[in-house]
Specification:
The chain is an alpha/beta fold and 184 residues long. The chain is built from five helices and nine strands; from the N terminus they run E-E-H-E-H-E-H-E-E-H-E-H-E-E.
Length: 184
């Protein structure tokens, strides 16, 4: 268990061995969150939520019922659910989903992810291609990785471009859905 303060929000988060970044909030995730503004009316997807940091933070800024958190690991989903309840946002939706396979939700204004980038690119490829279709027009996909070129190229191909922010050795990608079909 650890505490993290982001802006005016302090969260106490339970973790478990085997979950991503179990000792402290991940530096890449914090870098990404430093760039994201949550607005009233946002519909947020925390894609690959782990123990729930991103979605729970978002739910402190928008209506908790407008936040969906999914992960493919049943243990992560259980811990995220407990963390949401313990941090005062029981209205968030937390579910088991391998990427988008287990959820039908659409119309997100923000999809936020710290995808596994130390393996092959099949997971982030799925996140980007299917995420585009789940975003509302004008919605934004946010991703953080330590790899630049593949993500820049993939997001550029699907979204027609992206902004890249470099923070402390991490690349934070911001890609806005400007049309209803892939760019190319």
């Amino acid at each position: 268990m650890f505490d993290v303060t982001i802006g005016a929000v302090t969260l106490r988060l339970e973790t478990e061995p085997g979950l991503f970044s179990p000792q402290r909030a991940d530096a890449g995730t914090l870098a990404m969150l430093s760039l994201i503004s949550f607005e009233p009316g946002d519909k947020i997807l925390d894609l690959g939520c782990g123990y729930g940091l991103v979605g729970i933070l978002a739910a402190h800024h928008v209506d908790a019922e407008s936040v969906v958190m999914v992960d493919s690991d049943p243990r992560a989903v259980a811990v995220a659910r407990r963390n949401a309840d313990a941090n005062g946002v029981p209205g968030v939706t937390v579910g088991l989903s391998d990427g988008f396979i287990g959820t039908r939700e659409t119309g997100f204004t923000k999809i936020i992810s710290n995808p596994p980038y130390h393996v092959d690119f099949s997971v982030p490829k799925h996140f980007i291609e299917k995420g585009f279709n789940r975003l509302a027009l004008g919605g934004t996909m946010w991703m953080v990785t330590k790899r630049r070129d593949w993500y820049r190229n993939k997001l550029g191909t699907i979204f027609g471009g992206c902004r890249i922010h470099e923070i402390d050795g991490y690349y934070v990608f911001e890609a806005m859905k400007r049309r209803s079909t892939y760019a190319s």
